[in-house]
Amino acid sequence: MPRSEGELAGRALELTRLDHAWGRAVRGGVVVELVGEPGIGKSALLGVHTERVRADGGLVLVGRGAECAQKSPYAPLAEALGAHLPSAGLAPFPRPHAVVGSLLERLAARRPAVLALDDLQWADRASVELLGHLLRAPPRAPVLLVLARRPLPRQERLAAALAEATASGLVERVELGPLDDRAATRLVAPSARLMARRDALVRRCGGNPFLLLHVARHGGGVPGAVVDLVVEEIEQLGQEARCLLQGAAVVGDPFDLDLAAVAAGSPVRPPIDELVDAGLVRPADASRAFRFRHPLLHRIVRDHTGPGWSAGAHARAAGALARAGAPPVALAPHVAQSARPGDRTSAGLLIRAADGIAARVPGDAAQWYADALRLLPQVTTAERVVLLTRRAFALESAGRPGAARATVQDVLGLAATGRSAAGTPPTTHRGTAPGCRGSVHAPEGARIVVRRVLGPQARRRVRDELTDREQVVAALVSEGRTNREIGEALHLAEKTVERYVSRVLGKLGARTRAAVGGLLVPLR
């Protein structure tokens, strides 16, 4: 089996349509427009079809447009017709379209022919004009003309000529869309190791066979060939459209058009139509919402946007959302990328956002706790213990036990030294970072973190039921301290401690104070 045919998973219908067009062309000229995004399989489909035509006894003429040859007149046609043209080529003729038309008729008079021109998005202006003439006056001979191209917005002349011919019934349009899930998984299914993650891989690549095969061979990373393909597409856009695409990548996927325009610093009327026409984005379900063609495209655009420009775009997006009264969880992704060290207001917003989603999206919460710590270089030991504790819980819930244990070790190191960032050795600090209010006993907080994160019974029974203060109370209860001793350690009234102990017993499902120690087993 030819390699191209092996990569045609899920293209039986499109191949059948080309075969039917060839059957009709034997009785007279037929034109097929083959359209699809880069890597979707146009060239592979053409390769299999032309092999079938050749096996059927037909004459195969194949040419390809090239970005580097856009200044060479008639380049794809010259490649396809090759030895059948005069040595001087088509340029010297006053009416080259007539020469090509008559040449095709002579060749097809001997045996039916297929003229397959691929990558016409790179066709030079002279070739586009000649093809326009052929569409208006097709050869009167058994010729199948297959024109394959990407939907680039800068090929208006060719697109207009094809649209006019399609309306007249001369051209049949075959559009290659993403592979369905079944075909896509079959394409990347050979190895058992890959099968475990192939569903995520299919979603990430949006059913594009080129991306699927290259990313799968690269172990799930983004190979240079894929990046080059996307960059090649983006470079065909105008400057404003490129900025809008980068702003959209900053906002997210899917993205709100107005917010993406603000992030990009675009004009009042952002050039979204150019991105849609190029097939890079598609309308989403919500009004004025769009999504990238596939998640991998979003990642590549985001990762290849300069850090300085990206930070400014995040800041613009955060300002627009804040003015609209958006909640902390909506602001946090942009604040984390644009705030500067020492910005305690932004750190507080990140902590509130992380607290709000820790139970639902612990991975994002863990990152935002880390971002908050990065913005607070002068944080006290007590503040750092609280934030690292919350980050450890989030990492554990996100299924990252190794990172959770490493964070616990950081907490234990702080508790062991008992020193602040300035070098003073206080035993107890009063947290002042936003989101870290209240008296915190760093060593006791460290012990409760260890028990909660690393104790297997705690993972099954406790999770995140206890507040920070309840964690400290539970730790002291597990050490056998009385309510009076706990009150003295935490500067609380005995009645207040009694209420905390009651809540701890209820949340842990413990009937006695001794059972608390059993649920929070310390590591030795």
UniProtKB/TrEMBL annotation:
This is AAA family ATPase. SUPFAM superfamilies: C-terminal effector domain of the bipartite response regulators, P-loop containing nucleoside triphosphate hydrolases. Residues 459-524 form the HTH luxR-type domain. Gene3D superfamilies: Winged helix-like DNA-binding domain superfamily/Winged helix DNA-binding domain (1.10.10.10). SMART domains: HTH_LUXR. It comes from Pseudonocardia yunnanensis. Keywords: ATP-binding, Nucleotide-binding.
